Amino acid sequence: MRVIFKRLDHVQVCIPRGGEARAREFYGRLLGLEEVEKPDALKANGGMWYNVADVQLHVGVEEAVAPSKRHPAFEVEDARGVRTYLERSGVPTKDEPDIRGVVHRFSCFDPFGNRIELLEKTNG
Description:
This protein is of the alpha/beta class.
């Protein structure tokens, strides 16, 4: 059998227990993501879900959260402007190496050290 992938449904980052208010401030207010209601069966686990274009970002709760190389990457418009906005809002950012087909890419970090890559692709 060959697995047929239709699309990416969601990615997950983790926050420590009790970090929901800070996560909502970052993902909801600062990034402007739309929070969607989690299924009743999962609400007791904590965390929250957001719509990001046609994919969801799940912010889950774990006892131990350590920064790592794992990360979601999202294509945005005006990556340089987004970076300026985030830096002016006190969000740490990091340069990423140039790659073909990408105008600008960088990483930013949520209040828990989760890396989020943001990139703007060329039009051609």
